[in-house]
Specification:
The structure is a homodimer. By secondary structure, chain A is of the alpha/beta class. Chain A folds into 2 domains: about 5-85 and about 250-410, 3-Layer(aba) Sandwich (Alkaline Phosphatase, subunit A), CATH 3.40.720.10; about 100-245, no CATH class. Helices cover about 30% and strands about 20% of the residues of chain A. Chain A contains 13 helices and 15 strands. In chain A, the strands form 3 sheets. Chain A has an 8-stranded mixed sheet, with helices on both faces. In chain A, strands 5, 6, 7, 8 and 9 form a 5-stranded antiparallel sheet that branches. In chain A, strand 3 (about 100) and strand 4 form a beta hairpin. In chain A, helix 11 (about 310-315) runs antiparallel to helix 12. The longest helix of chain A is centred in the C-terminal third of the chain and has 19 residues, at about 320-340. The first copy, chain A, is globular, with a radius of gyration of 23 Å. Chain A starts with a helix and ends in a 9-residue tail after the last helix. Chains A, B: GO terms for molecular function: metal ion binding; phosphoglycerate mutase activity. Chains A, B: InterPro entries: Alkaline_phosphatase_core_sf, Metalloenzyme, Pglycerate_mutase_ApgM, Pglycerate_mutase_ApgM_sf. Chains A, B: Catalyzes the interconversion of 2-phosphoglycerate and 3-phosphoglycerate. Chains A, B: Pathway: Carbohydrate degradation.
Chain lengths: ~425, ~425
């Protein structure tokens, strides 16, 4: 039996309260001068005490060696086995995007909906050779990120397909994502990327008859984009791939019987939370203390809370080791406070690691501590990247954390007699 | 999405250099007198120092409890998920065979090619009862290995199928393997082994029409072998099973974008390496020092090197605990030398364990240390069967080592944004 179906069948409801406290990009690597990681450096007595009473371990987000973006990282953490839900790469890209342009403006609160058609894109260089146009550079000479952002803004202003909304998500260098919203969009479209230079761009093709109208729309987008960008020196066309429609994915309530709320200050994380059916609570500011306040106020109304701290990842992305350490330290008393609110189960974890020495996400196991009154704790002295691996949880797939938490919350029946 | 497809999609190329130093049969078990394993006994200061700076753990070759032969052991180590590549048992047997007879002679350099038809065999005893011939012993009274070898040589001399080459691989006791090479061979053949004694042998049957000619050829081989062996007292027929054609499997370059070279002195390992598309470098002798010299000379020419040390396994197969310890010790300074060559990633590992006290391969986790500048190391004081399990790698599937190494070499893009 598929695991997810088994779990669904075993679910029971009760009055228990579960919290996932998520430090974005939580895990790090040793600082070259001290040999200590971010968590080994941080002075976090409350978190350390929590870890000593918890079952600690490391979460592997998507199998050995895979570095997840925020979309795949969070979906795993929420107990979604990505290999069993057909989430096209374009959808994962949009889920993880920080900004979005619409009509030439940066807009807020755009969240992917079932039926949206999402795709990844490269800006590329099209060159006219005789009477043929060929892709001379699939990455438009890896144009600088601000350049790429300007072109995304331009596209979002000029692209126009009657009856459809077009959203453009800037990425790093030549990368971006694009989302089409409107009636009758379906996936099953081939990539428009020829995968090599010196050949003409490939039109998108429908893999089945129902997708033909969607294919025509995407080809229209490509044709328009090529006209709009005609005068750009490098980024004068787009190559689209990973095109797919956002599926209706089951909510956390449908899968695991939990009414869930998200407490996050950045749009991307609110969007991912809504995708899995969470209510997004109003925090009212960007302050962590206000996130904790929102948690306290909504305590009675939900079974499961996801509280997201963004800044650990933010500092790590700019190689600011001390900045990241500081976020852990400033959150330590807030975390202590939530441990006193009466939760039955608390997980302290992350969506992926972002070591400050790398300045980017990584593939390393995510330091995690799971506490309840029935947890098998022990083995660790503190909460750190290395120390948790001595704990009783061991190495687990990220997607296993939620089932473990639900078990600790006594929300599963026995399997068989 | 299938994991291997996801990895393939994430691959990027760069200038990094990766080494897999493979001690065949690396892991052992405690000596009954000292209570210490082979690696705990060995004096290997350079390897211990390496382990202290590395991410250590244990590799499980094919799931809990499975003892792999050399073929499956190496393929997992090279990142091939065997459950996703249809490698018939006969092909795996041939890949792991040490010797091969052709035309009555031991020959060198025979390597399995796509389209070869490979099969496992038992010598068996056929008895005439009235007008019926029945299998009276499916294992020919487990004839001694030298006897079996003699019969393999005989078969290889006498078997003759026009237009096809026949290769016979001696095994232990009644076991052998056989390979047919020639046009139009396809798999999809039933076993010829009736699985019980007292019944007539079963002819091989084609499972689909395209396999009928191959079935007829294998039945012809069985009939000829039974005539050739008519005067043998015990091994007077053959039972063939696990029959299948060697598929074209993707190369390491196709799967992971790495140009790979193998440094090995024994034919079997060269064969497995060529199967996955590695270049096999000329070592010029059986000396480990010359293997290291070959590595040094080819350093600039490849992305990935597989360096194989056979003798650890060889000594363990003859229960020579001290002999195996001695190989680790004599390789320690050579290993130190390779750590100074400028590799970005080095894995010290094995294809399986061969505890000298067992005298055979085993199912135990393979002691492994993975080093790079970005590895999360720590937790171990030395490199040994038990100590590595305290490291940050934990227990992993063998097939996960290459993805981990490629991640450390920064050869994967992020999954999703």
């Amino acid at each position: 039996m598929e695991r997810i179906k088994l779990l669904q069948e075993l679910v029971i409801k009760n009055q228990s309260k579960i919290l996932f406290w998520v430090f974005d990009g939580i895990g790090g690597l040793p600082h070259p001068e001290t040999g200590k990681t971010e968590l080994e450096t941080a002075n976090i007595p409350a978190i350390d005490a929590f870890a000593r009473s918890a079952s600690c371990g490391g979460l592997v987000p998507h199998g050995a060696g895979v570095t997840p973006g925020s979309g795949p990282g969070h979906l795993s953490l929420f107990g979604y086995p990505l290999d069993q839900f057909d989430l096209p790469r374009g959808v994962l890209e949009v889920l993880g995007a920080e900004d979005v342009f619409h009509g030439g403006e940066l807009v807020q609160g755009v969240e992917i909906q079932a039926g949206d058609l999402a795709m990844r894109g490269n800006f590329a260089t099209l060159e006219h050779r005789g009477d043929k146009a060929v892709i001379s550079d699939r990455r438009a000479n890896k144009i600088a990120t601000p350049e790429s952002r300007r072109v995304c803004e331009l596209l979002s202003r000029e692209l126009s397909v009657e009856g459809y909304e077009v959203y453009v998500y800037p990425g790093k260098e030549h990368r971006f994502a694009l989302l089409l919203r409107g009636p009758g969009l379906v996936g099953g479209l081939s990539d428009a990327d020829p995968q090599k230079s010196g050949v003409p761009p490939k039109p998108v093709e429908a893999e089945h008859p129902e997708a033909e109208r969607s294919a025509a729309l995407v080809n229209e987008i490509i044709a328009q984009a090529t006209r709009i960008l005609a005068d750009e020196p490098e980024a004068n066309t787009v190559l689209l791939r990973g095109i797919g429609a956002a599926p209706k994915i089951p909510t956390l309530e449908e899968l695991y019987g939990i009414k869930a709320a998200a407490i996050a200050t950045y749009p991307m994380y609110k969007g991912i939370a809504r995708l899995v059916g969470m209510d997004v609570l109003d925090v009212g500011s960007m302050e962590h203390a206000d996130e904790v306040k929102a948690l306290e106020e909504a305590f009675d109304d939900y079974d499961f809370f996801y509280l997201h701290i963004k800044e650990t990842d933010g500092y790590a992305h700019v190689f600011d080791f001390d900045g990241k350490v500081g976020v852990f330290e400033s959150c330590d008393p807030l975390f202590k406070k939530v441990t006193e609110m009466g939760f039955d189960v608390i997980a302290l974890t992350g969506d992926h690691c972002t070591p400050a020495v790398l300045g980017d996400h990584s593939w390393h196991p995510i330091p995690t501590a799971l506490w309840s009154k029935t947890v098998l704790g022990g083995g660790v002295e503190a909460f750190s990247e290395r120390e948790v691996l001595r704990g009783t949880m061991g190495l687990r797939a990220s997607r296993d954390l939620l089932p473990l938490a639900l078990a600790e919350a006594r929300r599963f029946n026995k399997f068989g007699a």
